[in-house]
Amino acid sequence: MDRAQKEQLVDELGQIFESSGVVVVSHYAGLTVANMQDLRAKASDAGAAVRVAKNRLAKIALNDKPCASIADLLTGMTVLTFSEDPVAAAKVAEDFSKDNDNFVILGGAMGENALDRAGVTAVSKMPSRDELIATIAGMLGAPASNIAGAIGAPASNIASILSTVEDKAAA
Length: 171
What we know:
The chain is of the alpha+beta class. Helix content is about 60%, strand content about 15%. It is built from six helices and five strands; from the N terminus they run αβαβαβαββαα.
């Protein structure tokens, strides 16, 4: 890899570190190519991405970035799982580590906050951005449906009373 390619890679990694909601650092020694393809596919489906980069170049890219605290984790064979959604990458990494003993989560960063192994697990259990938006939309729609039900209820009550009176009159 020549100097220009290294500079380009550092720039790409810098963009990743700056724009990601969460970055998870893991060791992947012992994973097969098929395992890595599976991880990449799962990450892509969840709106996350996976990147293997040289630790030295990743440390250079981390300079003056919000998640610079993960530089200490970049030793050995590391892979970065990242996403704009603050939860997606952590969920993918956590789920993948359950099925693959060779995939070991070291920690990560959520913005300026450093995450240890337990922190990544905690983030992975949080609802995703889409789930939160759906919950909020449901909460906003509930009062409207309650009002519509309350407005329609007196009419149905009157109809049932009239029906009962009719039945009694006919009997």
